[in-house]
Design brief:
The chain has 253 residues and is of the alpha/beta class. 44% of the residues lie in helices and 20% in strands. The strands form two sheets. The protein has an eight-stranded mixed sheet with strand order 3-2-1-4-5-6-9-10, with helices on both faces. Strands 7-8 form a two-stranded antiparallel ribbon. Helix 1 links the parallel strand 1 and strand 2. Helix 1 packs across helix 7 and helix 3 packs parallel to helix 4.
Length: 253
């Protein structure tokens, strides 16, 4: 997929990885990017910074709590209207919160599902859209177990599973919307969590560079790893159980 002149939405875009992704999208030629975040002051500053760097009206900010369904729906629709369309969606909003598992699930899982459905609704070819790509940001914690972060790990496993399921031919052949997962690395240091461990994300610019590559080249349903500040690479996951006879038929159809 060519990125130039496309319209993009990034959630959790006020700072850190979300802001870096937004900047990288603009650097690679997107027409405009909508930033969605609950942090209003940081979001406005991010918008002003991007517009100063890339030109007026290249970035627009929408204040929104992605865990509030009606608020998220409204902000998403206003963003699409302002952009004049949508071809790229990055579901990046996420938290580490082991003490409030409900909040972690609402941000890391429910908002990703809702964002994906909203994005497909806007882009799906069987409803008059042009197709597009959705990148759901997960983590290596979504590929194996972390004893220090069981809730976070569970939410990121959910993102991987949901994305893989929605990338099946049954959906893609109708919508023309690719669903891709990008798993970012977590590195361990000290003095934060009660268990005595701290997990900090790797340098965000390498993750953003990998995301651009995935948008351009990744196949629907693929899972990519970004770690050690190296180029992203794809992994293959095998299902633990064989398909039943009726599932074979469903796949063939």
């Amino acid at each position: 997929m060519q990125i130039k002149e496309k319209r993009a939405i990034v959630t959790g875009a006020a700072s850190d990885l979300g802001l870096t992704i937004s900047r990288e999208l603009l650097r690679n030629g997107v027409a405009a990017v909508a930033l969605i975040d609950i942090r209003e002051s940081a979001g406005m500053h991010a918008m002003d910074s991007l517009n100063a760097e890339f030109g007026r009206n290249r970035a627009v900010f929408f204040h929104c709590d992605v865990t509030n369904n009606s608020e998220f729906d409204d902000a998403f629709k206003r963003a699409v209207t302002t952009l004049g369309g949508l071809e790229i969606l990055i579901n990046n909003a996420g938290v580490i919160n082991e003490s409030d598992f409900s909040k972690a699930i609402d941000v890391n899982v429910t908002s990703v599902i809702r964002g994906t459905l909203l994005g497909i609704q806007q882009m799906q070819k069987d409803a008059g859209g042009k197709g597009g790509v959705i990148v759901n940001i997960s983590s290596v914690a979504g590929l194996h177990s972390l004893s220090q972060l069981p809730v976070y790990s569970a939410t990121k496993h959910a993102v991987v599973s949901f994305s893989r399921s929605f990338a099946q031919p049954y959906h893609y052949q109708r919508t023309g919307v690719r669903i891709i997962v990008l798993c970012r690395e977590l590195t361990q240091s000290s003095n934060d969590l009660p268990e005595g461990h701290r997990y900090q994300s790797q340098k965000v610019d390498s993750v953003a560079h990998g995301l651009i590559y995935a948008i351009r080249c990744a196949q629907n349903g693929s899972i990519w790893i970004s770690e050690d500040r190296k180029p992203v690479y794809e992994i293959q996951l095998s299902d633990s159980l064989p398909l039943k006879p009726d599932e074979y038929s469903a796949e063939e159809n």
